């Protein structure tokens, strides 16, 4: 069973490597990622969040399941911002400015090239997960004092969990 990696683990700040080999091992890994994501009630999960520094993420938004490998953004439209959460930051929500829609290309777990248009929550989720592949986290744009407040909250959360 894969284990969720929590901030500030260094793997969350590393640029992930492209996937070069498709096959049953990759498909099995993706299935395990879905298990972890559903168990944690997430809508997106990137491979670095389970300790694997590869350019893979998964999404399950508005009934659509996406496996995204070696993604490329083709074009971006508009701006939007909502309070986002992240499975690597339990209990933390941060409002992040994003593009409101985007055209993208990626491979699925079978190695098939997919061209996709996303908007609303799917677009936001895609950008959030893509940031994980570039070692970026949704708190990166915050002030030093906001970050240190979040670190304290995460510490407290961790202690609470250890006591349970
Ligand atoms: Co996240």
Q: TL;DR of this structure?
A:
The strands form two sheets. The protein has a five-stranded antiparallel beta sheet, sandwiched between helices. The protein has a two-stranded antiparallel sheet with strand order 4-5.
What would you say this structure looks like, in words?
By secondary structure, this protein is an alpha+beta fold. It has helices at 24-39, 120-133, 144-163, and strands at 44-46, 56-61, 64-77, 80-84, 94-98, 101-107, 113-119. The protein has 3 helices and 7 strands, in the order αβββββββαα. The strands form 2 sheets. A 5-stranded antiparallel beta sheet has the order 1-2-3-6-7, with helices on both faces. Strand 6 and strand 7 (113-119) form a beta hairpin. The protein is globular, with a radius of gyration of 16 Å. Bound molecules: cobalt (II) ion. Cobalt (II) ion (CO) is lined by residues 86-88, 128, 132.
What is the gyration radius calculated from CA atoms? 16 Å
Bound molecules: cobalt (II) ion
Biggest sheet details: 5 strands, antiparallel
Q: How are the strands ordered across the major sheet? A: 1-2-3-6-7
- Specify the structural class: alpha+beta
Characteristics:
single chain; 164 residues; alpha+beta; five-stranded antiparallel β-sheet; two-stranded antiparallel sheet; 7 strands; globular; binds cobalt (II) ion
Strand and helix layout:
Elements lengths: L23 H16 L4 E3 L9 E6 L2 E14 L2 E5 L9 E5 L2 E7 L5 E7 H14 L10 H20 L1
Antiparallel strand pairs: 1-2, 2-3, 3-6, 4-5, 6-7
The structure holds cobalt (II) ion.
The site of cobalt (II) ion has 5 residues, from α2.
